[in-house]
Amino acid sequence: MMDEAVTMLADRIEPGDHVWWQQGPSEAITLVDGLLALCEERVDEDPVHAFSGLSLNPRFGDPLPAGLELESYGAMGTLRSVARAGRLGIVPCHYSAVPRLFATRRLGADVGLLQVSAPDASGRVSFGVSADYAADLLAHTRVLVAEVNHALPFNPHAATLPMTSLDSYIETDRPLPENTVRTPDAVDLAIASTIAELVPDGSTVQAGVGSLPNAIYSALCNHSDLGIHSGVIADPILGLIDAGVITNSRKEIDCGVSIGSMALGHRGLYESLPHRNSIRFRETSYTHNPAVLSQLRSLVAVNAALQVDLYGQVNAESVGGRYLGGIGGQADFARAASSTGSLSIIALRSTSRSGSTIVPELSGGLVATGRPDVDVVVTEHGAADLRGLSHAKRTAALIDIAEPCHQESLCRSAAGRHNPSLSAVGVGH
Question: What pLDDT, on the 0 to 100 scale, is given for residue 423?
């Protein structure tokens, strides 16, 4: 299979071409592995320029071939290994901007590597578990090469395209990679409990994936008439739909339907999607579009962070020189939730291996989400509601939810930066 993939790609990809592929469980792993092998062979030719997002491909734990230059909007999944090796170029952009960057040729799209299902009776193939940026990029890509994966279910509620639009393909029968996360611990549960109290019944919720988002979804089990409009459809969403918690009945748009750009979870989630009419996958130009999000006046956006500084600015990218994430859709949803929606929440544990996550200054000065778009910051020590607060009062509220053993040093740093204005709110005492 690998030799077949390499031979096919060699006929389609020229030295210096720009190649993109899908992310998460939609990643065409067989083709990507074939591309890496091809680039190892072409050591004396112009490198291939590639772009992708979240990867679950273990091959990226090995060194990249010299003939490949890889870029992404962040270091997610196994791309963290590429970032640690200094081989990942980060394109700092809102996730909503990715389709436009390709449409305007700021990012190249000579060849797209797709994973699709086997065709249905009408000759169409499906992305199965996504639409995402790939659905937007189809119109801007010269050559489409596909891995027709017979293990990928045909899902009419995901992106589809005619089989005849594929320039080349190989057939595989490969299980989709699953996203495994640790069981939520006491800290996750404490944060989730606080967030659940902030979410009104009837809200349209956006959250990510991982231990903390899973805990947050579980903590919403006693709510009613929730809706979903999110970048990712995660495992716990199915349980909330089946329990009647998620009905989407009070959404301002897409009433009755949960909207996502891709699924990310376990096999049971992937296999159930074709049978769930109430879950639809849309392209990034819809799911993250500010004009679309502004119609969701009930939107509660819950986003994770690596750090929050004493002004309320958010770092979701890098700590201590290690690139660990990306801007992604955080700013898209936070901005919409804070300006035209209901509530923008940033959730994080109060400490990490690097120390306090409430910090005087963000690591590397990288701001993923600006302070005007952060309504509430939540740690296991409580919630800091920043709405309507001055810088000095924000600082005091944020120090109150920091790990207690770090509060004194944060007060000293704050007093040195803000001088006498903090005395009125009790910071520095």
Answer: 45
C-alpha closest to that of 330 among 306, 349, 351, 350: 306
To the nearest 10 degrees (0 to 180), the angle between helices 404-418 and 391-400 is 170
Average pLDDT of every residue of the chain: 95
DSSP 8-state class, residue 178: P
Name every residue whose Cβ is closer than 8 Å to that of residue 215 and which is 6 or more positions away in sequence.
184, 188, 189, 191, 192
Are the beta carbons of 139 and 284 closer than 8 angstroms?
Answer: no
If you search the block for the tokens 């590397």, which residue do you land on? 364
- CB of 85 closer than 8 Å to CB of 60: no
Encoded amino acid at 92, one letter: P
Specify the pairing of strand 111-116 against strand 88-90.
unpaired
DSSP label at 120? Answer: -
Q: Check pLDDT > 60 for residue 28.
A: yes
CA–centroid distance for 427 within its chain: 35
pLDDT digits (tens, 9 = 90+) for 138-160: 999 999 999 999 999 999 999 99
Task: Tell me the C-alpha distance between 212 and 179, whole Å.
Answer: 14
Q: What is the DSSP string of 255-288?
A: TT-EEESEEES-HHHHHHGGG-TTEEE-BHHHHT
| String of DSSP letters for 317-331 | SEETTEE--B-TTHH
Two tokens at 279?
């879950």
Which residues contact residue 92 at a Cβ distance below 8 angstroms, ignoring those fewer than 6 apart? Answer: 73, 327
Contact criterion met (CB below 8 Å) for 353 and 392: no
- Residue entry with tokens 């937007």: 136
Interatomic CA distance for residues 43 and 380, integer angstroms: 51
Domains of the chain listed by start with CATH number: 2-172 (3.40.1080.10), 186-425 (3.40.1080.20)
Instruction: Tell me which H or E stretch contains 311.
Output: none
Mean per-residue pLDDT for 21-29?
Answer: 98
